[in-house]
Design brief:
alpha/beta; 2 domains; 16 helices; elongated; 5-stranded antiparallel β-sheet; single chain; Beta-lactamase; Transcription Regulator spoIIAA; 5-stranded mixed β-sheet; binds 6-diazenyl-5-OXO-L-norleucine
């Protein structure tokens, strides 16, 4: 069988190829000379499978796509509070290089605009690093996200530094507010080197998949940043990643994303996929024209919008029945699938309807494949309250979906591998009481 996904990607690339609107970034001379016809798209799945079509192994500079990843490094190196004290999380609705700071605090509004990203660069790694060590930390971290060692493009770096007046102005303003505490020139130099890291579309898809995969690179298995950091970064990408086009993007595409002026564009859909596209012609917001069209297509063709309401999950309570009769009767709530809060709430409703005369109750998890933390706590509370109401509670849990269940405070559960064992336990208990 021919592989389906690369064929789909090739077809969609073919559909956008004729759109030659927009221009490669002109303010960095070295970027202006990029081949505008380049076009590629790659999907990296959270299990490490990569699909691609077009120019997915051509290197280009990462530019602003580095921003969410370096934000992730700063959050994990310094902790949330010191970073949030210096850079906000509010969408600016302004261009990426706007010279704007919060009027009262002098903080940049968010880490995706240049003012925020320049500050964030200075927060990557330990406080006492010198500028060279800080760049090393940043490149090492970006490489961990990509799963291979990345280098910088010296020509693009030098070309941007010759024209970095606006970023230098922003950095000096940040220094005047004490948001930057280091030499503004050195920080802009480091930030520009960060933006000059060379990546391919394949790398970018893997970097995005690392975010989609809770911070674990799907190929190397390395936990690059903690899960809590990933949630913060994806949230900020969703609200601020596309600058003054963020609202249009959130409604029409609905994937946490980030663009770069070399023509790259990434999106990360939590738990599912990292997507990257490359096409150098940009629109007025500095986002790749064909990249935006490709993401619109991917989102609608594959239902990838994060606000897409999933099909109603199969009922968590597969059956609610009684086995055997008389004193050995056993009320069984047979559960199934993945259980989150809404599923656990269904179990609460069923449990509340159990008559006090039905002494023995089993929660059967044999067909359950996942239980999230809140659902686990609710199921344990059900067990505790049933115990306090005089029921004997059994947990049928052959796959240890709920290891070491402890309902606490007067609750008690007997864990068994199957319903027959629950019966035998009950018979033994009844025999013991009788003798
Ligand atoms: O700060 C700059 O101007 C660039 N090195 C990065 C800007 C960028 O990629 C904006 N994104 N679309």
């Amino acid at each position: 069988m021919r592989p389906i996904i690369p064929d789909y990607l090739a077809e969609v690339l073919g559909d956008v190829e004729s759109d030659t609107s927009g221009e490669p970034a002109g303010y960095i001379p070295e970027l202006a000379s990029a081949d505008p016809e380049r076009l590629g798209a790659a999907f990296a799945m959270v299990d490490g499978e990569v699909y691609g079509a077009g120019d997915i192994d051509v290197e280009f500079t990462i530019q602003s796509i580095s921003k969410p990843f370096v934000y992730a490094l700063a959050l994990s190196d310094r902790g949330f509070d010191p970073v949030l004290a210096k850079v906000g999380v509010e969408p600016s609705g302004e261009a990426f290089n706007e010279i704007s700071l919060e009027s009262d605090t002098g903080r940049p509004l968010n880490p995706m605009i240049n003012a925020g990203a320049i500050t964030v660069h200075s927060l990557a790694g330990a406080e006492d690093l010198n500028p060279t060590e800080r760049v090393d930390r940043v490149l090492h971290g970006l490489s961990a996200f990509a799963g291979r060692r990345l280098k910088t493009d010296q020509a693009v770096y030098a070309s941007e530094m010759e024209h970095a007046h606006r970023n230098l102005a922003i950095a000096h303003m940040l220094r005047s507010h004490n948001v930057l505490t280091e030499d503004p020139g050195a920080v802009v130099d480091g930030y520009t080197r960060q933006c000059s890291a060379l990546v391919t579309t394949r790398d970018l898809a893997m970097m995005a998949a690392t975010l989609a995969n809770r911070g674990v690179n799907p190929l190397s298995g390395e936990q690059v940043v903690p899960e809590a950091v990933v949630r913060q970064v994806l949230s900020v990408m969703f609200s601020c990643g596309m600058y003054d086009a963020a609202g249009d993007w959130a409604t029409q595409v609905g994937i946490p994303a980030k663009s770069g002026v070399a023509g790259g564009l990434i999106g990360a859909l939590p738990g599912q996929i990292g997507i990257a596209t490359f096409s150098p012609r940009l629109d007025g917001h500095g986002n790749s024209v064909r990249g935006v069209s490709l993401f619109e297509r991917f989102s609608s063709d594959m239902g990838l919008h994060v606000m897409e309401v999933p099909a109603a999950a199969r009922a968590v309570v597969r059956s609610n029945h009684v086995v055997a009769g008389g004193p050995s009767a056993l009320r069984v709530l047979q559960l199934q699938g993945g259980i989150g809060f809404a599923g656990a709430e269904r179990v609460v409703q069923e449990a509340m309807a159990i008559s006090p005369s039905e002494v023995r109750v089993a929660l059967d998890l044999t067909r359950v494949h996942s239980i999230d933390d809140v659902a686990r706590r609710v199921l344990l509370e059900i067990a505790r309250r049933l115990t306090l109401n005089g029921h004997d509670v059994y947990l049928v849990d052959p796959e240890s979906m709920m290891p070491d269940p402890d309902p606490g405070d007067g609750g008690r559960v007997t864990v068994v591998d199957n319903l027959d064992l629950a019966d035998q336990r009950a018979a033994t208990a009844a025999g013991g009481q009788g003798g």
